Amino acid sequence: MKKIILLLVVICLWAPLSVLGHSSLSSSTPAEGERVEQPLEEIRLEFGGGIEQGSTMSIKNEEESLEFEDIAVSEQEMVGTLSEALPNGTYTVTWEIISADGHPLSGEILFEVEQESVEEPVAEERVEDQATEEEEEAVSDPQPGEEQEAAIPEAADASEESGTNWLVTLLIGAAVILLLISLYGLFVKKR
């Protein structure tokens, strides 16, 4: 009987530690919902725990999927290098990792590239064409405030994922404490 109780105690103490082995995204460059105003040639993701080789990420804008020139995976970091700087637009990075404990995890990061273009002296004709194009883009593109509002729920999802891991750990810890109190009560009653 004592061996069974000891085995249950060991299992209950080990279970919360196995939950902590999951890696969650701790930071990214660019950050979720960020507006990037400088040329961007790499995406950097940092995780709260170890990640394994075989972890990957992809990037797409509103129109197409883009290719990373190279994706480097180290202990807690994944860096995707682009062959050229990203043009203006909204991008989604989708990541899929294998955490140190072997569990697959995935998520997304939404950000916007908005660099000021270098203006060259142009003829009046070109200025009129440009004004017409800008009016057409203003009609078809959502307002910057609308894009930021869409990014906020994404950031909340990432926070929820991190909060859920701690909640599970807390609940398992509480269950272990209740089990130990119950077992102690059984031993005291038998004596």
TrEMBL record:
SUPFAM superfamilies registered for this protein in UniProt: E set domains (SSF81296)
Compartment annotation: Cell envelope
Positions with biased composition (Acidic residues): 130-149
Ranges that cross the membrane: 166-187
GO BP term, pick one: copper ion transport
Single Gene Ontology MF annotation: copper ion binding
Domain CopC, residue spans: 22-113
Domain of life of the native organism: Bacteria
Alphabetized UniProt keyword annotations: Copper, Membrane, Metal-binding, Signal, Transmembrane, Transmembrane helix
Disordered, as annotated region: 116-158
Keyword Signal: yes
InterPro entries: CopC/D (IPR032694), CopC_dom (IPR007348), Cu-Rt/internalin_Ig-like (IPR014755), Ig_E-set (IPR014756)
Descriptive protein name: Copper resistance protein CopC
Organism annotation: Planococcus salinus
